[in-house]
Amino acid sequence: MEHNMAELRASYPEMIFIAFPGDEKSTGGCLAAGRGFFHINSHGGAEPCPFSPYSDINVRKTSLREALKSELFRALQSESILTGEHIGGCVLFEQKDKVEAIIERNKHNG
Ligand code: SF4
Question: Which residue owns the Cα nearest ligand 1 atom 8?
């Protein structure tokens, strides 16, 4: 995919190509959890990304600004999970156990 994306970008410089998961290298790592964007599910849950459906805060009860500072998002950013080395694909899916452990830890702390 990396090769195809490079070819497309070279062939159509006037266009912007975005592909994820898989192309996070070109954006300096995973941009989920408020590093670049986040996702709000149909129930209002603020999730790191549509591909990482975990949430510990709901925008029906809080502001977007507060949602961006959720325990989950802060932990994902501070524990370098988003920018760590990985083997391709989705970094948060690959480290699903760590993400679930953060959710569990926060349940017991809060
Ligand atoms: S959570 Fe996965 S799919 Fe979403 S931006 Fe990060 S690496 Fe890509």
Answer: 21
